[in-house]
Amino acid sequence: MTPPAPHTPSDPLLRVEGLQVWYGHAHILTGVDLTVGRGEVVALIGRNGAGKTTTLKAIMGLAESRRGNVTFDGRPIGTLPPHAIARLGLGYVPEDRRIFADLTVDENLEVGRQPPRPGAPHWTPDRLFALFPNLAAMRGRRGTRMSGGEQQMLTLARTLMGNPTLLLLDEPSEGLAPIIVRQMADAVRRLKAEGLSVLVSEQNTSFAAAVADRASVLEKGQVRWSGRMADLMADEAVRRTYLAV
Amino acid sequence: MSFLLVQALSGLATAATLFLVSSGLTIVFGVTRIVNFAHGSLCMIGAYLGWSLIERFGGSVGGFWGSVALASLGAGALGAAMEVGLLRRLYRSPELFQLLGTFGVVLVAQDAVAWVWGPEDLMGRRAPGLKGSVDILGQPFPLYDLVLIGLGPLVLGLLWLLFTRTRWGVLVRAATQDRDMASALGVDPARLFTGVLFLGSALAGLGGALQVPREAVNLHMDMAMIVEAFVVVVVGGMGSLTGAFLAALLIGQLQAFGILVFPQITLVLVFLFMAVVLVLRPHGLMGRAEDAPPAAAAAAPVLRLGNRGGWIALALLALLATAPLLVGDYAVIVLTEMVILALFAASLHVLIGLGGLVSFGHAAYFGLGAYGAALLVRHLGAPMPLALAAAPLVAGLGALIAGWFCVRRSGLYFAMLTLAFAQITWSVAFQWSGFTGGDNGLLGIWPSAWASGKAVYYWLTLALCAGALALLRRAAFAPFGYALRAGRDSALRAESVGIDVRRHQWCAFALAGSAAGLAGGLYAFAKGSVFPTLMAVSVSVDALVMILLGGVQTVSGPLAGAALFHLLESQVMRATDLWRLLLGLTIVALVLLFPRGIVGVLSNRRERS
Ligand SMILES: Nc1ncnc2c1ncn2[C@@H]1O[C@H](COP(=O)(O)OP(=O)(O)OP(=O)(O)O)[C@@H](O)[C@H]1O
Ligand SMILES: [Mg+2]
């Protein structure tokens, strides 16, 4: 059972209740509950294969068979197709980056562009190049010729072009050099300062600790613990149970 | 010299039309990953629409070009409707279903167009203002063709601008690479794809309508166009516009000069060119490995009949053997054809069910067997038993040669290569009239005197087909069959345990070819004649439909499918002229009802891979 979760927002931006997902016959998520409040950064933490990516995909409408209640800004989105969910202001940044390799940096950003959204920061390529200076120098370059870190930044920038109010960020630190990881953490904090809400999946608890207000710990397709990020970092026992390899 | 120049120019004019049609096909393929058989039909419809409009309004320059544009838009609208009604439901289906579904539309379009415009060839008006010719080094060259030559690069340029300089184009390219990611960014892929089908089909219609002043509009345009466009797209690299442009230029020249050197086999030249390109550059001139279509969908496991099944088969055989004693001559003829088709379908099942190799040209071997037997009778006066013995050998030899090329590729490319070889054999039978009788076929191929009774010939057919089927079934459950299936399910894993997958597939191709050849030989004597249509794409598709009807998962499925198919065909054809329309609608309904395969196993397997 999920222990009573302190500090859960009463009117959350995103509410997930009893989310279940199957891949073929494999029952991967057996009932995920979590919330993200307005302006909050929540970390979704769990071991390899715990179901973090699956959870984010299912929220985004990318899982083939899903069940459960997902509401975003008060609207049920559990049965909408991905593009409709994206147009409501949910931005998804996948773990495997998936930039459009044949398209230039500018074109990748163009794909993500959506009209300005009231209540969300408005992004333009120029503002994004200020946030990620590395990208500015390679606007005409194709995705095939970018490093992993550059690709990760482009993926994030491309999603921001949709002016989301909530960002689903899947393992942004995976496979990146420490210095780039620090830049990513900075970027996430800047986004929060701009008023964005973020649900970030991580195995790397130190990255999560650097950015998140709250955490939900996922194991075997369910949230087993949720609470303040600081409490999680202080609670050796919980981390040993759910996170130690 | 000037003659050669004019020849080259006329090759360029051909290339322009070819490029227009192929560019549409390659764009649609690039985005939807579906090879749209109906693309040729859209081109034909564009031509017919264009003909009607030009007859009415084509007197003035504006009227003519307005008619061409309108015809193109009409074809585009049909293509968009086809996306919404059919293709959209097939994006995640096995290739076999995508190809069959769009071929169903081809059949429907053939009957519909014949119904609206009639069966006669229609000669259109010349383009106003462009009726004359210009003088090129002393040789006259049609002005209209000169305009066409300019149109090719113009359209290429416009398409390039569309795909690189507009938001729509960028979104299409993004969705082409990663549909799910694009939709997660707020792009509605369904609307985008409808637009792409509109564009691609409008290009096909444009190519068709522009032909009106050049040549008669006819009911064979659809297959002729789709087959040539396939070649262009495959040679150019699937999904590549510049590749299609280059390939169209090359093939236009090949045709223009090929006709001077080998007037009998121009079609063969084109397909040989494609086969050679594919062997040398597996992804075409400008294609890239990652553009390659996914490997063929694995078929369902083949279920083994138990002992009971064996007894049932024997009982069925006994029942079939007594049939001539119980029913009349007409029924015996229908039964004879049914048994022959059952062997034909079962031979294709060896490739699809066991090997996971979807062949779109299996009729080639049926036809080779039939022609092999008929030619022996006609030119050497061979007796029937000798001719029947030669049929599987001729077809098997043909399959050995074609198979060597085909098994080098998998998935869609395999399907296209088999189709190309079937078109080669078809065009030889069609064009080499001195030897094969051409369009008139070969008549008077009757059985020997002792087998001339309908019942006796039926018993002979039954015995030979039952023997061949027993052999095929043995092969399926011998180590050979298991190796084939291992290669089908995972070529990599099969190779790692020491199975030479390609060699097994090659053997299977030859085996299936000779079995089809025996069926073809028997068919020739049953009908008393052979025609090039025996090798037409539609015959290959008939066999696929039989397998689809019966289910891929059992060895006996194709037999039941063949029986059902032939029964339906012979009954419906007697009742109506619209057999193709009905067959087409049936195929479309089948793939829509079972978009992921007749058996769920098929789709699950694909998901896991
Ligand atoms: N396409 C798929 N088909 C079948 N099973 C899958 C598929 N994708 C993921 N799984 C399984 O679902 C489970 C959860 O996977 P998921 O990718 O959500 O984990 P994760 O927490 O993101 O792991 P990681 O930290 O490695 O990214 C795993 O056991 C995985 O094997
Ligand atoms: Mg993951």
Provide an overview of this structure.
Chain A has one domain: P-loop containing nucleotide triphosphate hydrolases (Rossmann fold), CATH 3.40.50. Chain A has 245 residues and is an alpha/beta fold. In chain A, the strands form two sheets. Chain A has a six-stranded mixed beta sheet, with helices on both faces. Chain A has a four-stranded antiparallel beta sheet with strand order 2-1-4-5, covered by helices on one side. The longest helix of chain A has 16 residues, at 178-193. Chain A is globular, with a radius of gyration of 17 Å. Chain A has ten helices and ten strands. Helices cover 34% and strands 26% of the residues of chain A. Chain A starts with 13 loop residues before the first strand and ends with a helix. Chain A has helices at 52-60, 82-87, 105-112, 125-131, 133-136, 148-160, 178-193, 205-211, 229-234, 236-242, and strands spanning 14-23, 26-36, 41-45, 65-72, 75-76, 90-93, 166-170, 197-202, 214-219, 222-228. Chain B has 609 residues and is mostly helical. Chain B folds into two domains: 2-291, no CATH class; 323-537, no CATH class. In chain B, 74% of the residues lie in helices and 2% in strands. In chain B, a hairpin with a 2-residue loop joins β1 and β2 (139-142). The model of chain B is unreliable at 290-301 and 598-609 (pLDDT under 50). At the A-B interface, α2 and α3 of A face α6, α7 and α25 of B. The site of adenosine-5'-triphosphate (ATP) has 13 residues of chain A, from β2 and α1.
Main sheet attributes: strand count, strand direction, barrel closure of chain A: 6 strands, mixed
What is the residue-mean pLDDT of chain A, rounded to a whole number?
89
Q: In the CATH hierarchy, what is the superfamily of chain A?
A: P-loop containing nucleotide triphosphate hydrolases
According to DSSP, the number of beta strands of chain B is 4
List keywords for this structure.
heterodimer, A: 245 residues, alpha/beta, Rossmann fold, six-stranded mixed beta sheet, four-stranded antiparallel beta sheet, 10 helices, 26% strand, disordered N terminus, B: 609 residues, 25 helices, globular, disordered C terminus, binds adenosine-5'-triphosphate
